[in-house]
Amino acid sequence: MQAWIQDEYHRTPHRGIQNLTPWDQWCESLDRRRQPPSNERIEDIFLFTANRKVRKDGTVSRNNRFYEVESALAGQTVTLRYDPNQPELSLQVYYEGQLYQSAHPVDLAGNARAKRRPARKQLKFS
User: Fold this and answer.
1) Is residue 91 exposed (0-12), middle (13-18) or buried (19+ Cβ within 10 Å)?
2) d(CA 45, CA 43)
3) Most CB within 10 Å of its CB: which of 8, 9, 30, 58?
């Protein structure tokens, strides 16, 4: 079977590709192929993304689970990148297009005891 594919199929002209052989078509398209950046792992290309607004307590949610992010991002919209097949892994957090940090599942007991600044009331001047 492999010999037939290499010797016959790839070397026979096909009408669907302007009577070129699959081998010729493949060789002509080499310069148009997009290569992944060398510093990016191939697995990162296939991650899912989701935009979330960071809550006041420094958490975001995905699939009814809460994750902690840097509290300085509170109120900001971030992009989460994740592998849906491995939910136990951390989420990558991107802010303004740059990798900011990873989000980790919330420690519910620790988060409940965290000290937070009280919200400032806006004064109305008349």
Assistant:
1) buried
2) 5
3) 58
- By C-alpha distance, which of 52, 48, 54, 61 is closest to 106? 61
C-alpha to C-alpha distance for 37 and 121, rounded to whole angstroms: 47
Helical (H) or strand (E) element with 23: helix 22-28
The predicted-structure confidence for 77-113, as pLDDT tens digits, reads as follows: 999 998 888 866 778 999 988 888 788 888 777 767 7
User: Tokens representing 68?
Assistant: 């902690």
- Nearest CA to 20 out of 47, 54, 28, 92 is that of 28
Residue 7's alpha-carbon distances to 2, 10, 20, 121, in angstroms, are 8, 7, 15, 78
Domain boundaries, the chain: 42-107
- H/E element, 45: helix 42-45
Running DSSP on this structure, what letter comes out for residue 15? G
CB atoms closer than 10 angstroms to residue 101? 16
| Coarse DSSP helix, strand, coil percentages of the chain, rounded to the nearest 5 percent | 30, 30, 45
